[in-house]
């Protein structure tokens, strides 16, 4: 039998070994120990974003007590974890829970087709360096693929870029051992990546400049939480973690709500805090006073005000202007000023990508994601036995992920109890208004939204980036309602084959 004819079967197939996929695996292990599952990871390592991006200083922009899993305490002292710390934490989660042997690396999913007559997903997988596709069969398909293109970051066309004699680098494709010691560096962008790069590189460069078309809100937060330190000294790690987590969630949600309710007040407070951290006379009005309201875009966190310290030291500066063109020696601005550079870093954002462009088909009909509507923040209309996890835009991303997969396990329990084989979200009100599922205004979001599913505006179709709302709906609410349709379990041979190791080759059952 050749590779293209080989088939593996499992109860649940998880695509992606990042935070979402690992959380799904943990919840299945804990709450569904008799369910077999397999994780497919397109790359050669776990971690998603945190193992892909390698630029200096990369770290979380949410506090780790909120960002880490609810079931595994974050025990490091640092509030904002580095990429390596996060990857180590994820690996510990895999090892402690025996998830390692369920992962197959270098396995790219190209398509998945659901058959209602069988109640089964048939998934095609391309393995690295293999010509033929592998076929997998699974009752349930879970997506933990994130929301952006892992292969290509977004970089606009800059006139004259071919004339620049230095090096142009995108943070998503950071060269190994890039030498920027004693160099003049310009970072194009003003978001989370830019404010991370500036202080991380400032101590080694001759000078580093953040070039922005318009400013973002930047807020300084302590890198070590003294309350967390105190609680960890007197309480068990799990108990201390629970208290710190609740505190941080409450503070984050409180700041967000105040920003939406009293935007002018929050704007003044945020800008005043920046002003007191920078040298007297610094042009805060030009460089750190956005035209939009707080939380129209995410706030950029700088631990211990590290970027402000870099600016105050004279090693870093901010220029707010528009690019005319790249030149041989740097960047010519619309104002006529030239920024000299040896290295230009285009921290210009991501390319959003819906479900890694995996083509879904249901009973022969190809699914166009924008035509679907999101159900309870985790399923898609008219697609059976399918779930996904997108995190929050206004608080730690991972908080949504744990809620989604706990709900999914409760749903499978309900199906077992009632001998159901499939679930399918179905819209009753065909005239329901549909809206974008994200309301943030960054360019990369607005560019990519058209390829994603829409949210509804009523009942379980409503999509809110609201942790309290989802906590009530997904964690405490019933798993069924009128919009979720079930069919009886079809008589079939039990699917119970799982991989035996975490080697790069799939363990195939013919």
UniProtKB/TrEMBL annotation:
The keyword Phosphoprotein does not apply. InterPro entries: FAD-binding_MO, FAD/NAD-bd_sf. Its cofactor is FAD. The keyword Oxidoreductase applies. Keywords: Monooxygenase, Oxidoreductase. Signal peptide: none annotated. Belongs to the FAD-binding monooxygenase family. This is NAD(P)/FAD-dependent oxidoreductase. It comes from Acinetobacter oleivorans. The lineage of its organism: Bacteria, Pseudomonadati, Pseudomonadota, Gammaproteobacteria, Moraxellales.
